[in-house]
Amino acid sequence: MTKVPFCFYPFYFMEFAFFGKVFSCCPAHVKKEIGNIGTQTIAEIWNGDYIRFMRSELLKGDWENTCDPSCPFVQDFIHNNKFQSLDDLVKNQRITRSIAEEITAGRTTLTSMPTVFNFCNSDICNLDCIMCCCKGMKSDTDLTKKAYDDAFKYLPTLKTLALSGSGDPFACTDTRNLLMSFEGHKYPETKIQLLTNGLLLPKFWDQVKHNNFSFIGISIDAASKETYELIRKNGRWDDLLRALDFINSIRERFSGVMINMTVMKHNYHEIEKFLELGVKYNFGVSFNEVRVEGNASQDLDIFSNVENDDFPKFVSIVKEASSKKYPVYVNWGNLSSYTKWGC
């Protein structure tokens, strides 16, 4: 095992999801969880059998047994032979030098502990988005507390505390209280990363602004009032624009700002307008495929059935938009694979 892997997530990242499940990456992009915080500690999970297998596979340059091909890192590796930069991860303070040394030494059992904790274990949100896969998950507050308590033991070496990729961190009382009470001055190297719909941030900003923030991602999914209020139920377009203006006014508090569109039947026609929205605010732009199951997939999904009328229109839009240069960073995610589609 002498290769440097194209992805380093299992060497520094842990995500806490519903039902106590813990993952080494986004749950949609891996085959299975690496453990459960309900029955194990972080230390036990971190060098458990499955995550060591994942590391071993990546060190060999293999991904098929552990990763889903939809992962943007896998897509970049398959189509562009692109690798993450280990030096950049150290430079950007995502990982420590000791982790980098263990990776280059080909180790699968690590003495270094994770540097990024991502909490996606709350379904509490101020919106009711039509494609949300967290509906009915019913957060377990005891498991959430156990995960927080164990994770906070690692604050002296933790680089990023990410909140939250399921509900909204400002709608969830536990997460909001954490943001309000977190003593960031004691841990200046621990940065808080936010994934939010943005609507409640102006209301609570004065109570959380003492924290050290890194990146903020804003889930929007639309570029017009009609589409936004169709997809993001309980949300109002005018409130969003006011929130974006506010975030723009405090953008120096974040290392980066990015707006995201989850692409589906209802919004793919607004991809170019969404890019224009990012350019207007000078925010980065990211895209990802909708992921739904059951009957809802027939109404939202344009990817699983390439014979549907929307698919060739979508491909044409993506090809046209991705061929252009933009003055902001654009992450096409796994949509980039469709630029090679023959239609």
TrEMBL record:
CDD domains: Radical_SAM, SPASM. The keyword ATP-binding does not apply. Residues 104-324 form the Radical SAM core domain. InterPro entries: 4Fe4S-binding_SPASM_dom (IPR023885), Aldolase_TIM (IPR013785), Radical_SAM_PqqE_MftC-like (IPR050377), rSAM (IPR007197), rSAM_sf (IPR058240). It comes from the Bacteria. Its cofactor is [4Fe-4S] cluster. The keyword Iron applies. Keywords: Iron, Iron-sulfur, Metal-binding, S-adenosyl-L-methionine. This is Radical SAM protein.
